[in-house]
């Protein structure tokens, strides 16, 4: 158990500014703020120096190379993510350390502890299974798994043989799975018969079967998590435990070129079609490893819990790769935080003596709502550090997290980053601080960025603008969108040119160089920590045959951060009803998944349009938020606005 740390609470000149005390400064990897200047004097040398902490089969010839839309890190170097996550620790004599603790949802079921030795054994075996099914370096493998250890085994096995994985969130619908598998051209899928969620067995394999239809997937490997009674298609489906039983225990890791693709992860952009963000090997490894180490203060023996799902980038980097590369214990929980009761999170922390907790503001707001009595029932004194990610954290949630969960001892590391950036980009370091509610912090050492106006000029301190990251680009930044490099160039480098990455996030900076992220400036929502485009929800709803036209906008929500609100025009002869509403929700479930359900469906007769026929979502957004509507003179149908106001008041 860590000794209590009392925080120097307030900077007398400002409200709510917290600084690390001497004990934290002493323990942290980095406590001298000079690191920022040193790293920025030569970012390439900074990253190259820390890259040496990992294993390279062959050292790079050149640490960094820039060309517009085609920058490279550790050129000519060869490495492997799985080797660095597993073999490196085993070879150093640390094979007996626990790599994973898996907590099943049913409270009566025993937690599993998997050592680095054992994880390496399982990963090597599974890598051999994949090879025996014909998976070669460069082939894409789909992963549609719940929060079970096999999710990490599967990702690591892919990385071991150099087959880029594409993980699809298990609560996504079959159609979402299909779209992603088709786009990625995957030939093998790893899934499970099901999993436990809120005390119920969810039958995942049934969804997988529907999703695989119409793809190029030849083989489906099924992990048995429920009772194993799911349908299996002869010739296509195999049980994980069967193929593992006979697999060889050794599998040499593939020496990957630094710039080889490690994985593709689909995420929402501002259109209806999610984009396959791909990441490389060497650069991704280095930034994932170093940010995990410094930001979460990872030391030998730490038991660190990132509550994200493996289907999101946070799960990729901070459950799996970044964490395991640091040789600590990564905790995975299968189920829901309210099962069997609202105290489950805190029971898990107490039971496993968790030292660092990394979660999302939306979860924190939910815990606040559930009440203080739940965390108060448990001993949380093992915690040393807290992290948040996914959306701007509000003041109340921050203070509650700091006080009730961190006991006033633990710094809150508010990490801003994106699927595209692969790893943390903006946050303050535990040994340096400051920790300011609602303020993420400075760019990580070696990363430079600023808040710019639309024309690309840095704005003054305190002014709003767009967050941009400068070249030399951080090593883990995406190298492209799978199959659509034009979209990649336009989306990220269209605004400020090839040397400044456009994040799509609004921000302000303070006089200390800290960034306060104000949220997305495009049509991407953060719904309970899930990234989702309004256009995706629109396109899902439009698939219902009763729908004539639909516009979706986001609206702030106390718990979820943001929620979609749908304005729906029904086809002639279709009457609005609760029945139709339910049907529309079902359509969204089928096309995307329950995470995308609109909070409100408002039936309308008309939506405001420009003279060229484009829906003016700005007006709808103002209406649902109760904000001033602004200029309506450019509308083709200004009368629609009054009717809409009424509809919004009466919720359609
Ligand atoms: C938002 C998740 C404020 C932001 C890692 C970004 C945040 C989007 C923060 C990416 C934070 C993430 N403070 N906003 N600490 N972290 N965001 O791709 O809008 O699922 O663009 O990656 O989440 O979401 P994604």
Q: What are the bound molecules?
A: 5'-O-[(S)-ethoxy(hydroxy)phosphoryl]adenosine
CATH homologous superfamily of the largest domain, by name?
ANL, N-terminal domain
CATH architecture group name of the largest domain: 3-Layer(aba) Sandwich
Mean pLDDT level: 95
Q: How many domains comprise the coordinates?
A: 3
Low-pLDDT residue spans: none
Look at the helices and sheets and give the structural class: alpha/beta
Task: Determine the fraction of residues in helical runs and give it as a percent range.
Answer: 25-40%
DSSP strand (E) fraction? 15-25%
Rg is 24 Å
**Distance between the first and last residues' Cα:** 55 Å
Strand tally is: 30
Describe this structure in words.
It is globular, with a radius of gyration of 24 Å. It has a seven-stranded mixed beta sheet with strand order 5-4-17-16-18-19-20, sandwiched between helices. A five-stranded parallel beta sheet has the order 7-6-8-11-12, sandwiched between helices. A four-stranded antiparallel beta sheet has the order 21-22-24-25. It folds into three domains: 8-80 and 261-446, Rossmann fold (3-Layer(aba) Sandwich), CATH 3.40.50.12780; 114-253, Rossmann fold (3-Layer(aba) Sandwich), CATH 3.40.50.980; 527-649, ANL, C-terminal domain (GMP Synthetase, Chain A, domain 3, 2-Layer Sandwich). The chain contains 20 helices and 30 strands. The longest helix has 17 residues, at 116-132.
């Amino acid at each position: 158990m860590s000794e209590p740390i009392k925080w120097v609470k307030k900077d007398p000149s400002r409200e709510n500014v917290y600084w690390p005390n001497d004990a934290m400064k002493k323990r942290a990897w980095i406590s001298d703020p000079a690191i920022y200047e040193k790293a920025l004097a030569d970012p390439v040398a900074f990253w190259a120096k820390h890259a040496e902490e990992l294993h390279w089969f062959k050292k790079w010839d050149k640490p960094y190379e820039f060309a517009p839309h085609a920058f490279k890190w550790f050129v000519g170097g060869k490495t492997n993510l799985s080797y660095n996550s597993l073999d490196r620790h085993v070879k150093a004599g640390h094979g007996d350390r626990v790599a994973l603790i898996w907590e099943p949802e049913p409270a009566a079921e025993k937690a599993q502890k998997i050592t680095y030795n054992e994880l390496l054994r399982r990963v090597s075996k599974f890598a051999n299974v994949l090879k025996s099914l014909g998976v070669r370096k460069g082939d894409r493998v789909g992963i549609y798994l719940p929060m079970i250890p096999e999710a990490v085994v599967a990702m690591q096995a892919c990385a071991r043989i150099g087959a880029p994985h594409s993980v699809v969130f298990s609560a996504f619908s079959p159609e979402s799975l299909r779209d992603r598998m088709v786009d990625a051209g995957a030939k093998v899928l790893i899934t499970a018969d099901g999993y436990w969620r809120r005390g119920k067995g969810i039958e995942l394999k049934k969804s997988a079967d529907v999703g695989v239809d119409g793809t190029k997937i030849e083989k489906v490997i099924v992990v048995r998590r429920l009772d194993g009674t799911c349908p299996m298609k002869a010739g296509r489906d195999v049980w994980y435990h069967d193929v593992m039983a006979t697999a060889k225990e050794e599998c040499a890791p593939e020496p990957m070129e630094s710039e080889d693709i490690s994985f593709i992860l689909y995420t929402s952009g501002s259109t209806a079609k999610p984009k396959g963000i791909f990441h490389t090997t060497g650069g991704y490894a280095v930034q994932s490893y170093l940010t995990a180490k410094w930001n979460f203060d990872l030391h030998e023996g730490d038991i660190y819990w990132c509550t994200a799902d493996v289907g999101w980038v946070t799960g990729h980097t901070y459950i799996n790769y970044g964490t395991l590369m640091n040789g600590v214990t990564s905790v995975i929980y299968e189920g829901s935080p309210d099962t069997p009761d609202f105290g489950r999170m805190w029971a898990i922390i107490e039971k496993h003596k968790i030292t660092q907790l990394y979660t999302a503001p939306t979860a924190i707001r939910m815990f606040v709502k559930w009440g203080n009595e739940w965390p108060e029932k448990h001993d949380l004194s093992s915690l040393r550090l807290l992290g948040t990610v996914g959306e701007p954290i509000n003041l109340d949630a921050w203070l509650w997290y700091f006080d009730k969960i961190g006991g006033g001892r633990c710094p809150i590391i508010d990490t801003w980053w994106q699927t595209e950036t692969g790893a943390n980009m903006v946050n303050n370091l535990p040994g340096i601080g400051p920790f300011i509610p609602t303020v993420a912090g400075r760019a990580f050492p070696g990363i430079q960025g600023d808040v710019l106006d639309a024309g690309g000029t840095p704005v003054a301190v305190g002014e709003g603008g767009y967050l941009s990251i400068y070249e030399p680009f951080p090593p883990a930044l995406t190298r492209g969108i799978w199959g659509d490099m034009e979209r990649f160039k336009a989306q990220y480098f269209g605004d400020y040119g090839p040397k400044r990455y456009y994040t799509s996030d609004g921000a302000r900076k303070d006089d200390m160089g800290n960034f306060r992220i104000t949220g997305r400036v495009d049509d991407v929502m953060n719904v309970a920590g899930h990234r989702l485009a309004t256009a995706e929800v629109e396109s899902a709803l439009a698939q219902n045959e009763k729908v004539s036209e639909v516009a979706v906008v986001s609206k702030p929500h106390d718990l979820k951060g943001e929620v979609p609100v749908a304005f729906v025009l029904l086809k002639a002869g279709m009457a609005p009803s609760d029945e139709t509403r339910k049907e529309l929700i079902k359509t969204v479930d089928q096309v995307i998944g329950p995470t995308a359900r609109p909070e409100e469906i408002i039936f309308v007769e008309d939506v405001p349009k420009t003279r060229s026929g484009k829906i003016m979502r700005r007006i709808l957004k103002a209406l649902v938020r109760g904000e001033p509507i602004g200029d309506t003179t450019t509308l083709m149908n200004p009368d629609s606005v009054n009717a809409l106001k009424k509809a919004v008041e009466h919720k359609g």
